Automatic annotation (TrEMBL):
Residues 6-155 form the Reverse transcriptase domain. InterPro entries: DNA/RNA_pol_sf (IPR043502), RT_dom (IPR000477). SUPFAM superfamilies: DNA/RNA polymerases. It comes from Dissostichus eleginoides (Patagonian toothfish). It holds the Pfam family RVT_1. This is 149 kDa protein.
Length: 155
């Protein structure tokens, strides 16, 4: 814990906590096709513990800062509630003879598209402390990913 506290005072984590090793795990199918491999990032235990601690703290306030219509990954809420609401709206609309449609959008790699400066401002507006935001910044900036290649040849 001293390592994390000291690192956070400097707003910087050691390289071991910012480094991931990317490897590929085989899925079913022809392994000559890249789509049949799943990328997995291996992280050090220290970083996992830190990440879990930050996540646990954030989870305590999520229901206060995330709109009630957002149900995924918020403790005490279930995505099933929104699915049921959609089903009910379609059913009532149909019984009233209303033409109804549904558009579902899912942005691929949504987190990768988030502008971090904007994210920090949003966290500020939600009332998170500058110290907590600094901890999140320290755990997500200047990261390094190394690709483990030809693992089967090494083994």
């Amino acid at each position: 814990m001293d390592l994390f506290n000291e690192s956070f005072n400097d707003s910087f984590l050691p390289l071991s906590c910012r480094r991931a090793v990317l490897t590929l795990l085989p899925k079913k199918g022809d392994l000559q096709e890249i789509k049949n491999w799943r990328p997995v990032s291996l992280l050090c235990t220290d970083y996992k513990l830190l990440s879990r601690a930050l996540s646990s703290r954030l989870r305590k306030v999520m229901d206060q800062v995330v709109d009630r219509t957002q149900t995924y990954c918020v403790p005490g809420r279930s995505i099933v509630d929104n699915v049921s609401l959609i089903r009910d709206i379609l059913e009532v609309s149909g019984s009233l003879g209303l033409d109804t449609g549904l558009v579902s959008l899912d942005q691929e790699k949504a987190f990768d598209r988030v502008e971090h400066r904007y994210l920090w401002k949003v966290l500020e507006r939600f009332g998170l402390s500058p110290g907590f935001i600094a901890k999140i910044k320290a755990s997500t900036t200047e990261t390094l990913t190394e690709v483990l290649w030809n693992v089967l040849e090494v083994l």
